[in-house]
Design goal:
Layout lengths: L2 H7 L6 H28 L3 E3 L1 H15 L3 H13 L10 H4 L1 H16 L2 H7 L7 H7 L5 H14 L1 H22 L23 E2 L8 H6 L13 E2 H11 L3 E3 L5 E4 L8 H9 L1 H26 L6 H8 L7 H12 L2 H17 L6 H16 L4 H11 L1 E4 L4
Helix pairs in contact: 1-9, 2-3, 2-4, 2-10, 3-9, 4-7, 6-10, 9-10, 14-17, 15-16, 17-18, 18-19
The structure holds zinc ion (2 copies).
C-alpha cells in the first residue's frame, strides 16, 4: 500500500456510509459519556453504573474530550449552586449569551484554574490509580490517541472526523446546553434561574435539551417529565437497568392530589416545597394568566400597551427585569388591584415555601393561613388553587 493510498482510505478502506455512521456513533457516545456518566452519575449521584460501564464512559470521555471528571463535576455543581450570578461559571444572564455560546470553553478553562473551588465542589469523588496516573494526569493524551486511531482507520477523512469530534462537546454542551439552555425554549417550571427546555424530543444532545426540567429536579436521573417529552439518556439508563448494569438512585417526584383534605398538613407542606417550581408555574397559568389576559385587553382598549418584556416579567415576578423595569411593572400593577392581589398572594406563598429560617410548624401555620385567605379572597381561580393545594402530596417514587 502506498502512502497516498493510506491517506486516501486508511487501513480499512471503508465506504462513505460507514464513515458517516462511525462519525454519528462516536459523537453520540461522547455525548452519552458526558450526560450519563459525568453529569447524571458523577455530578448529581442520581444513577450508578456497573463499574465496567462507568469505566467505558470514563475512558471514552478521556479519549475524545480531554475533560477531567473532577474539574467537570466541580464546575457543574458550582453552576447549580450559583446559577445566573457573577459566580456562575457559564451563565448567559451574567456573562452574555454570545460569550457562553462561542467562548464556553474559555469560561470552562478559566473556571478550572481555581483549584480551591474545584476541590470544594468535587467532594465525595474518589480518584483511583488510573485516574491519578493517566486520565487526570494526562488529559491530552486521549484526544492525541484518538487522532491516530481515526487516521489509521480512515486516512485523511479520519482527521476531519477527529476535528469535528473535538468540536462536539464545546459546541453542543458548552455552547448549546449552557448557553441556549438558559436562553431560548419553553419552561415547564418557574425555577429560580432562566433555564429552558430546547425541544421536547431530546435525542440529539443525550437528553440535555430538557435543561429546565433538570434545574427543577437536579438530582433526578430522568429528564423527561411530561407525557410528550422524550429523554434519550433516560432510555439508555432504562436499557442498562434492565440488563442489570445500572441502578437508578433518584428520579423527580410526582404530585398526587388527595381528595377531601380540609386543612393543609405536613404532607401538603412537604409536597408544595418539593415541587415549588411546578407550583409557581401552575399558579401563573391557573391563577394569574387569565386575569392578566383580561387586564391587558382592558389596558389595550384604554390605549395603554405593556411591553412584552414586562408581560413576561410578571410570570417570574420581575426577577430578570432591571430596577427601572421592575418599577414600571409595579406601577402598572398598582392600577390593577385584582391582578395585584394575585401577585401579592404568590409572593407570600413563595416566602412561606422558600427555605428560610422558619421551622416546619410555623411554616405549616403560615400555609394554613394563606389557604384560608386565598379562599376568602373573592378570586375564583385563587380559591380553587388553594382548595387543590390542600390535598397535595407526593406520590411514591417508582425508582
Ligand atoms: Zn444550567
Ligand atoms: Zn446538572
Amino acid at each position: 500500500m502506498s502512502i497516498l493510498d493510506f491517506l486516501a482510505h486508511g487501513l480499512t478502506g471503508s465506504p462513505t456510509w460507514l464513515v458517516i455512521a462511525y462519525f454519528f456513533a462516536v459523537t453520540q457516545l461522547t455525548i452519552f459519556g458526558t450526560t450519563l456518566f459525568l453529569h447524571r452519575s458523577a455530578a448529581h449521584r442520581s444513577v450508578e453504573f456497573h463499574p465496567l460501564i462507568a469505566h467505558v464512559f470514563r475512558f471514552w470521555t478521556w479519549l475524545t474530550t480531554a475533560m477531567v471528571t473532577r474539574d467537570w463535576v466541580a464546575i457543574h455543581r458550582k453552576h447549580h449552586a450559583r446559577v445566573e450570578t457573577e459566580e456562575d461559571p457559564h451563565s448567559p444572564v451574567a456573562h452574555g449569551i454570545w460569550k457562553v455560546v462561542f467562548h464556553g470553553v474559555t469560561l470552562y478553562q478559566e473556571a478550572k484554574k481555581d483549584r480551591e473551588m474545584i476541590m470544594q465542589f468535587s467532594q465525595g469523588l474518589e480518584d483511583d490509580f488510573i485516574e491519578r496516573k493517566l486520565y487526570a494526569a494526562h488529559p491530552n493524551w486521549g484526544p492525541s490517541l484518538m487522532f491516530f486511531i481515526n487516521l489509521a482507520l480512515f486516512g485523511f477523512i479520519g482527521v476531519a472526523i477527529w476535528a469535528f469530534q473535538m468540536l462536539w462537546i464545546p459546541v453542543m454542551a458548552a455552547g448549546v446546553v449552557n448557553g441556549l439552555g438558559h436562553w431560548w425554549g419553553y419552561r415547564n417550571f418557574e425555577t429560580d434561574d432562566r433555564s429552558t427546555n430546547l425541544t421536547p424530543w431530546a435525542f440529539f444532545i443525550g437528553g440535555e435539551e430538557l435543561h429546565n426540567n433538570h434545574h427543577a429536579y437536579p438530582s433526578s436521573a430522568k429528564f423527561q417529565l411530561r407525557r410528550y417529552e422524550w429523554d434519550i439518556g433516560w432510555s439508555v439508563i432504562s436499557l442498562l437497568r434492565r440488563l442489570g448494569l445500572a441502578k437508578v438512585l433518584r428520579i423527580a417526584p410526582t404530585l398526587h392530589v388527595r381528595p377531601n383534605i380540609q386543612l393543609p398538613d405536613a404532607e401538603t407542606l412537604k409536597a408544595a416545597m418539593t415541587v415549588r417550581f411546578e407550583l409557581s408555574k401552575r399558579y401563573f397559568r391557573e391563577v394569574i394568566r387569565p386575569t392578566l389576559h383580561d387586564e391587558l385587553a382592558a389596558a389595550k382598549r384604554a390605549g395603554i400597551r405593556l411591553s412584552g418584556r414586562l408581560r413576561r416579567g410578571i410570570a417570574s415576578d420581575g426577577r430578570w427585569l432591571s430596577n427601572e423595569q421592575r418599577e414600571a411593572m409595579e406601577t402598572w400593577l398598582a392600577t390593577r388591584p385584582s391582578l395585584a392581589t394575585l401577585v401579592e398572594h404568590r409572593r407570600r406563598l413563595n416566602e412561606i415555601l422558600a427555605r428560610t429560617s422558619k421551622n416546619a410548624e410555623e411554616r405549616l401555620e403560615a400555609l394554613r393561613a394563606w389557604c384560608s385567605e386565598a379562599e376568602a379572597s373573592g378570586s375564583r381561580a385563587l380559591a380553587q388553587f388553594a382548595a387543590d393545594l390542600r390535598g397535595w402530596s407526593l406520590a411514591p417514587q417508582a425508582v
